[in-house]
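tl;dr need the bound structure. longer version: we got a ligand (2-phosphoglycolic acid) that a collaborator sent over and nobodys looked at where it sits. i said id run it. heres the input, straight from their email, havent touched it
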Amino acid sequence: MGEKLKPIIERVHAREILDSRGFPTVEVEITASGRTSISAVPSGASTGEFEALELRDNDNNRYLGKGVLKAVNNVINIFGPKLIGMDASSQKEIDDMLINLDGTVNKSSFGANASLGISMACSVVSAAFYNKPLFSYLNPNSDIMPIPMINVLNGGMHADQGSDIQEIMLFPHGAKNFTNAIQMASEIFHSLKSELKKQGMSTSVGDEGGFAPSLNSNDQAIEILLNSIEKAGYNVGSDVSLALDVAASSFFKDGKYHLKIDGSILDTNEMIVFYEDLIRQYPIVSVEDGLDENDWEGWTTMNKILGSKIQIVGDDLTVTNPQKLQKAIDHQSMNAILIKLNQIGTVSETIKAIKLAKSNGMNYIISHRSGETEDTFISDLSVAMGGGQIKTGSVCRSDRTAKYNRLLRIEEQIKNARLKDNLNFIK
Ligand code: PGA
Ligand code: ZN
């Protein structure tokens, strides 16, 4: 009798589906006490060296070796039998089982794509069982909507051409609410498109839906964008500032940073000067992965010099891993962390990293991956965690707009929803 009051897992299934780059990824389907929910796992391109393992089949006869049938099989046949009869809402118990059965630090026995699919699907099916939207199932007191970081210019490993800086993002912190932030971003996105067209540049988009024109310098990318913000009728600095994800590990070779379009090869200190100059010239409020993921000394120096002015975000450096984050706290390497569920592989460990960041006064930004699906788990997570920031690509491509559209609906559902007003790096 009592069991009916809990979402008891009855069936565990998984399948290969396609991600936004057209490669397979894992989708998990869980039935608990008569409710069925699905969750799909995303996939990165500029992945951090210390991320949990995304298990691929490496069978060159299928999907160029990128099949995920092994991970699918691990969901169904390794974890599945253990999950049957468990309470899907006992997230910690479920995640501990996934972690312990795998037994490795980076989930390399059965794959973080297997564990994360299960972990998220357990949350989603539990929310459905309790008839709650996911965000309020995760946190009944949710009332803070995230300010979106909107990636309108793609470069680096996310585009065939473009800037060395992987992502140049709009940060519309002057918006009245989330709905208004999306309107501003869309108007600027289209203004940028017209501007690029006018200058005879390509308006095709990269993996996250931002434009990826061929440019003469990193500065030129920023200048065109600032111009487009003004042409759309917004004030640079008070309505909208810029955020960068440099993904510097992707152009760090033999101890130096190789900025291809600027034609310069810089050491760590010169890279920091490069950022100091950019910040002096432009309204940049946040820099992610400004240095290589192993350049710990450089991170500490950069945070010391720039951390009081802007947000210094670790992504590849910390890979959503509470141990790495503790190291970054001890070394004062950064003042914010990017949070990606599949870098660590369970919902509980993700929330543990967020809580650790929060208790140390660090900002946290919930993030998508460059390879995404229509899954909107991160939208709900961003609201539930209350950090006030989300990064989920441009305002086109359904894999990106699915997340924003979900947030538009959530904003309607929360009575006194508000954007976070005390982001310490907005002056
Ligand atoms: P990725 O890119 O998903 O390819 O890692 C996103 C990011 O670097 O933040
Ligand atoms: Zn990044």
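gonna send this back to them w/ a short note. Residues 178-198 form the longest helix (21 residues).
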